[in-house]
Write a structure and sequence with these properties.
Blueprint (H helix, E strand, L loop, with lengths): L2 H11 L3 E3 L8 H9 L3 E4 L1 H6 L11 H6 L4 E3 L4 H4 L3 H10 L4 H14 L4 H16 L15
Parallel strand pairs: 1-2, 2-3
Helix pairs in contact: 7-8
Length: 148
């Protein structure tokens, strides 16, 4: 519905995490306030395209959100409906130009935004660090435990 709807939701509900808040990228002042409030944005490139929010995955403003300092939680939304898993979303992020370091930070951001226990979060963050420190010929998709 656009940035005005995101603004209304943020004002009325004061969320800590906002699903499909990508349209905040269209209003820099709104995006500033979302970032300043520490609101995590759940970004689901495949569903954004399937639902007609953006024409192609390349149009999803993931880079804009990250460059602006938004805490982004990459998500697959509804994998059965959209026929796309979380690893597919990371492959899209890779196609959008994210390096291994940026993918790792995106995964860390997703973990920081989740409601899992601190113990689980520490374990998953350590897995990301190990992946990033691993050999260069490893897969380009950040592995995250099946419990996430």
């Amino acid at each position: 519905l656009g940035p005005e709807h995101v603004r209304d939701v943020v004002t009325a509900l004061g969320p800590t995490r906002l699903g499909h808040g990508v349209r905040a990228s269209e209003d820099p002042a709104l995006l500033d306030s979302v970032v300043a409030a520490g609101i995590s944005l759940e970004v689901c490139p495949t569903s954004n395209v399937c639902l007609g929010v953006y024409r192609t995955a390349e149009d999803v403003p993931l880079a804009t959100l990250l460059e602006h300092g938004a805490q982004v939680a990459l998500s697959a939304d509804d994998p059965l409906l959209f026929q796309s898993r979380l690893t597919d979303q990371y492959e899209i992020a890779r196609r959008l130009g994210l390096s291994d370091t940026a993918l790792a930070e995106l995964a860390r951001s997703s973990i920081r935004a989740c409601l899992a226990s601190p113990t689980s979060k520490r374990r998953w963050l350590a897995e990301i660090d190990a992946w990033l420190a691993g050999p260069a010929d490893q897969e380009t998709v950040v592995p995250v435990s099946s419990g996430s």
